[in-house]
Design brief:
By secondary structure, this protein is mostly helical. 60% of the residues lie in helices and 7% in strands. The protein is built from five helices and two strands. The chain has a two-stranded antiparallel ribbon with strand order 1-2. The longest helix is centred in the N-terminal third of the chain and has 23 residues.
Length: 140
């Protein structure tokens, strides 16, 4: 009578008896992980943690390409300030249009209904106001 083989895997330092399928699946994953580690070693993979120093983590040495550069933030701040100065120079009717479309986020159609003109009329007024602002900023 053939004795059936017992399969065991180590879980938290304790050998646990499992079925043949579980044993094969577990060690298949283990082997795959080892293969990936061997490929990483062979290809010279470097981990960010390998760059750690006493003062700085390796991850902190890599620039964040999604964040704004300080120079850009300063330029945007200056341009924003100038834009608000020029907006303050606009006539009340033009300022109301800019306020509604850009700060209150109304559509041209919604603003047209509010003041009782056509959407096309609002669009033409918006273009004229924007052209006026552009020319004011260029004249500086």
């Amino acid at each position: 009578m053939a004795e059936e083989r017992k399969y065991r895997i180590r879980v938290d330092g304790v050998l646990v008896e499992v079925s043949r399928e579980v044993y094969r699946a577990y060690y298949s994953i283990e082997r795959h992980t080892r293969t990936l580690d061997e490929k990483d070693t062979r290809n010279g993979k470097v981990l960010y943690s390998d760059l750690d120093t006493d003062e700085l983590l390796g991850e902190e040495m890599i620039p964040d390409m999604t964040s704004d550069r300080v120079e850009d933030s300063a330029i945007y701040s200056i341009l924003r300030k100038e834009l608000h100065e020029y907006l303050a120079m606009l006539p009340a009717q033009d300022m109301e249009l800019i306020q509604a479309l850009y700060f209150e986020c109304l559509t041209e159609r919604e603003y047209a209904q509010r003041i009782g003109i056509s959407q096309k009329g609002v669009n033409k007024r918006r273009q004229k106001v924007l052209d006026k602002l552009r020319s004011m900023m260029k004249a500086k």
